[in-house]
Amino acid sequence: MSFKTLPCRSMFGMSTQAKDSAMPAPITIVIAIYDGVTHLDFTGPHQFLSRLPDAKVIVASMGGADIHADNLVFTNLEDLASIGYCDVLCVPGGGGCTAAMQNADFVAVIRHLGLSAQYITSVCTGSLLLGAAGLLQGKRAACHWAWRDLLIPFGAIPDTGRVVRDGNILTGGGVTAGIDFVLTLIAELQGDDVAQRIQLMLEYAPAPPFSSGRPDTAPQAIVDVVRRNMQPFVKQRQDDVALAAERMAG
């Protein structure tokens, strides 16, 4: 998929030429959220996207209802079902994602928006919701490492990458991967220069004190504890995904 290249106005009032695949402005970006979403999954990318020139970023829920996320409440949201089109659809993940899969109306809206969007995107387990909407069949996709294999029942191909692109589908791994994901998305939309200026403005220069961000680099004792703590949720999520995959296939 290719788009006409246009000069973009940066946040500093300068003009920068976007790369050949960049989308013409203005751009409408919809972030679809639900109860139990992990707030960093969408507030991280939203922080960067809100600096994007010539873009409208909409955070929406079904009916515009307030959304509870990690003891925070997000209000004044747009009604997701009333949005007919967006250039970019972004679905974040969270503990509530499998419950959201069982909401047929929510999944139907995600499918509708995704089928007409120029880019279909997600962060963390948001890719499971894209899968439940039938948008990832035969596509490579990222997900949180603990739940990556749950993409398989939806016909998706799990990918260990922190940011994964397959055609017009761009997915990020677990939670903090949303920052790398959104910079990749911004570069795709408006060019590398715009992405780097926003990165500099927000001083994104990660240097974590530990190398425990992935199970292949964390100490085994740490991995064992985290896996044990997650175990109570595994069976329920597997059942929820199986039900959603059966509904999608039917």
The named CATH superfamily: Class I glutamine amidotransferase (GATase) domain
Helix fraction by DSSP (H/I, runs of at least 4): 25-40%
What structural class results from the helix and strand content? alpha/beta
Main-sheet strand order equals: 7-4-3-8-9-13-12
Low-confidence stretches: 1-19
How would you state the average pLDDT, rounded? 91
Strand content: 15-25%
Our Rg estimate from Cα atoms comes to 18 Å
Can you write the helix and strand succession as a string? EEEHEEEEEHHEHEEEEHHH
* Total of DSSP H or I helical runs spanning 4+ residues: 7
How far the N terminus sits from the C terminus, by CA atoms, comes to: 30 Å
CATH top level label: Alpha Beta
Q: How many discrete domains?
A: 1
CATH topology title: Rossmann fold
Tell the overall outline.
Answer: globular
Key structural traits:
alpha/beta; globular; disordered N terminus; Rossmann fold; 7 helices; 250 residues; two-stranded antiparallel ribbon; 13 strands
If you had to describe this structure to a student in words, what would you say it looks like?
This protein has 250 residues and is α/β, with parallel strands linked by helices. Helices cover 36% and strands 19% of the residues. It is built from seven helices and 13 strands. The strands form four sheets. A seven-stranded mixed β-sheet has the order 7-4-3-8-9-13-12, with helices on both faces. Strands 1-2 form a two-stranded antiparallel sheet. It has one domain: 3-Layer(aba) Sandwich (Rossmann fold), CATH 3.40.50.880.
